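Supplementary Note 3. Input sequence used for the single-chain structure prediction.
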Amino acid sequence: MRPTDAVGFREAWDVLERLWDGTVERARRLDPDLLHKSVDGEWSFIETLRHLVLVTDGWIRRTILGDPSPFHSLGLPWDDPDETRSLPPGITRDRDARPSLDAVLELRRDRMATVGQIVTGLTDESLDADTKPVDAAGWPESRARRMRDVLVHVFHEEWEHRLYAERDLDALEASRS
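The predicted structure, written as discrete structure tokens, is reproduced below.
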């Protein structure tokens, strides 16, 4: 997940999409209520997908595409030990929401398609270009960032959270038997 050129980014995104397809297929075999269950105090499978919606909204839709208000209400931000700390504008934290897998996957498909469009249009030159800062306060902080760095960050989030999801699906499957 450390591509160096446009072709490598396309290949890496293709791998991520295929791996997530398999992970979602596994999740669909479980009782839908289990997909809302936390394993060892970590996010549930649904919460993990909701977090990735927020990641894509912030890093892709805000930072790369320049949308000053990209956040969907089901996106789930990081957990903050100081719950009194205010979240950046446009971000909400609704830990009690219990959307269906299909509802969250609809958002994920939309966000993943957006990333796919960006990756498809990449050139080696565009990877080294800087994003244009959004003219609004929010998260991520509004400043120019190298396109390559933003995409590596998003790919890393996708990779790591899929590994967490697989680990948790292992535990949920084991608890059924």
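Residues 6-176 form a domain with the Four Helix Bundle (Hemerythrin (Met), subunit A) fold (CATH 1.20.120.450). Helices lie at 6-28, 45-64, 101-120, 124-127, 147-176.
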